Each structure stands twice: as C-alpha cells, then as structure tokens.
Amino acid sequence: MAFTSYGDHWRKMRRIMTLPFFTNKVVNTYSSMWEKEMDNVVDDLKHNEGISLKAKNEGFVIRKRLQLMLYNIMYRMMFDEGFESMEDPMFIEATMYNSERSRLAQSFEYNYGDFIPLLRPFLRSYLDECRDLQKRRLAFFNNFYVDKRRKIMAANGGKHKIHCAMDHIIDAEIKGEITEDNVLFIVENINVAAIETTIWSMEWAIAELVNHPEIQHKIRVEIDTKLGGKPITESNLDELPYLQATVKETLRLHTPIPLLVPHMNLEEAKLGGYTIPKESKVVVNAWWLANNPEWWSDADEFHPERFLEEEETTELTVSGGKVDFKFLPFGVGRRSCPGIILALPILGLVIAKLVTNFEMKPPPGKNKVDLSEKGGQFSLHIAKHSTVVFNQIIHN
Ligand code: HEM
Questions:
Q1: pTM, entire model
Q2: Engineering a disulfide at 251: which of 295, 329, 347, 363 sits with its beta carbon 3.0 to 4.6 angstroms away?
Q3: Which CATH superfamily is 16-392 part of?
Q4: What residues bind heme, as annotated (predicted)?
C-alpha cells in the first residue's frame, strides 16, 4: 500500500487494512499480548541461561531478542502464530527474507534509473535479483501463513469466526473486494513497514538511554511517582509524559524514515514561486524539519524535556488534532503512517519495561555506545547494533 498511487485502489486497500490493524479496538484487544511478549524479553534477560549471564557481565546485543519480540507481536496479530525462540527455523527464514528485501530496497541502485534514464539498462540484473527474491518471499508467506488461515476460514462450511487480521483480509478477498495478490502484498507491506521501522526506533532509544543514565533515572522516577507500583500497561501510558517525550525525542533525532515515502502530485502545483509539474516525485526531508537548528535549540542533543517545555506545541497526532510541521516522523495527511497507533504505545511500553527492570549500561571498558548512523535509500538506522549490559534492579 505504501507505494500505491493515490486513487481508488489505495483508498480501498487503506480501508480494508484499517479495521484489522489500525483502530483503538485492535490496540485494546492486543495490548496485553504485547505486554506479555515484552515481559518475556525481561524474563530472558534475567533468567534465560543463554542470555542472562552475558547480559549481566559482558553485555548482550539486544536487537535480536527485540526482533523476536516484534515478530511475535506482529505475527500473532496477523496470523495468530508465534515463534518459539531466536533459533526457531521459521523465525530464521522470515528474518532472512525480510532483511534481504530490506538490503535490496536500501540500495541506491533502487532508483538511479528514475533520474538518469540512460543508465536503466544497467539495472537489469539488480531488478532480476529483486524479482527472484520477491517470488520466494511471497511464496514463503503464502505457503506457511496465508494458506493456513484460508484453510481455517474454509472449514465448517466457511462459518469460521474472524480471529486475526489475516481472516479480515481473506474475508475481503472472498467478498471479491481484493485479489489474491493484494492479500499477499498486504502481508509483505506489514512485514516491512511495521517491523523494521519499529525495531530501528527501539535500537535508537536504547542506545540513547545507555548514553544518558540520567534520562533512564527520570523515567524510573516518573513511573514510580505516577503509577505507585501499579504495573505499566498501554492504558496508563497517558500518565507518563516524560516517557512519551523520550519516544518523541528518539523519533526526532533519529527519524527512522528521514525522507518519508516519495509522494506524487497528481496535478500541477505552484509552491513558493515554483511550478511543480504534475506527477513529480516529491521528497520531504522530515529529518531536516526535525533537526534544523534554527527551529530547535541544541538540535543535536538528545533532550526529551524539549517536548515538555519549549516545544510543548509539538504533538504527534493519531488522527486529526493539531499538527506541527516541524515534527513529522510518521508523515502527515492522508498518506501518513496509520501504524502510529501501534508504534507509539509499543515503543513506550518496551522502554518503560526495560528501564524499570534494568540499569542499561555500555559494555565494560566503554563509557558510551556507538551512535554512528547508517543511511540507506529509505532508512536511517544505527550502524552497529549496541551491546548493552543489563544490571537488574531489585524492587523491594
Ligand atoms: C516507529 C515506527 C514507524 C515509523 C517511524 C513509520 C513511518 C512511516 C512513514 C514516514 C510513512 C510514510 C508517510 C508519508 O510518506 O507521508 C509510513 C507509511 C506507512 N506505515 Fe509506518 N511507520 C512506523 C510503524 C508502522 C507500523 C507499526 C505499521 C503497521 C502495523 C506501519 C504501517 C504503515 C503503512 C501501511 C504505511 C503506508 C500508508 C499509506 O501509504 O497510506 N507503520 N510509515
């Protein structure tokens, strides 16, 4: 859906995807599952033989475990399926397909032909590689996940109750609203748009928190004072403005999709004295909007307080409401990210659970983790996955 031109097809796809993925009801239905998956991460860091000693002493690369958590969250919502462990062959296969897809899409070969048509013939082998991967990857989703739901839906003379997102989507196919290919592309879109972006943001948030122990402390104090020992759940995130400011500051300084997704104006437009011909590729530099030192004080500092003080008007809205065009990590308007409704609470909960259970520190001999960036065609992610020491906090 993310790359579909604006029009009837996009409208239909967005409508069909909204009910199973992007409503408050979905958040309410699944938030206790998200919390359980996050508690499993905390539990592994404390007690899992293969993880806990490392996590306590030399440090552990947390990305892989968070990746398992997020795959479990998204695959349970999508297919009512989960993965056993980081060694589960299905998990290994799913992550292999998705990271290969990500590598190809991040490549700058991806679009130079759009700008220099003469070079297009040289793209052929790259495009063949993309097509080959797409075929194998979609077959994997279809054979192991979508088909299984089709069979469950067809059992009992088709009287099966809708149980997960895929059932809604297959239902739309049965009603003739979308095709079999559309179903597979929805699965492909969620695998890319939902999982990778959210993991990059988690990695950035954790790395910044490791380098800013005082911010970890402030989050802990806020949780203690505001919740007074109550468990942290999606429904009480509203009571934790400093935690939410930390999530926003992560998305500001490390905008995961810095240029958003390319847009296109259907009609000729006049803007700032320029004529923009119809069907131009319009690229918005959301990173610069969020990091321009003329608009943000100490723009290159990780400083969540800015969202509570000087930048108090800067709001992320799930739907409607006031929008500050300085801060658009999820885009804005019709084509903005519908996943914001899931991504913000998931990020807030993960940070809250890690910070209340552990002091997160750099590995022995280091006083910071490396925050170098690696840019790709679409994303801005951390160059080296951080190794983090997790010192357990004992609660009385
Ligand atoms: C931190 C996490 C995330 C970030 C930073 C992010 C960011 C974005 C951005 C920048 C766009 C393009 C907006 C534009 O060009 O105006 C987008 C589109 C999209 N995102 Fe996200 N996203 C995140 C998480 C998610 C999640 C969790 C889901 C789904 C469960 C999701 C689903 C989508 C979809 C379907 C689109 C295409 C929307 C359309 O074209 O109508 N995203 N996202």
A1: 0.94
A2: 329
A3: Cytochrome P450 (1.10.630.10)
A4: 337
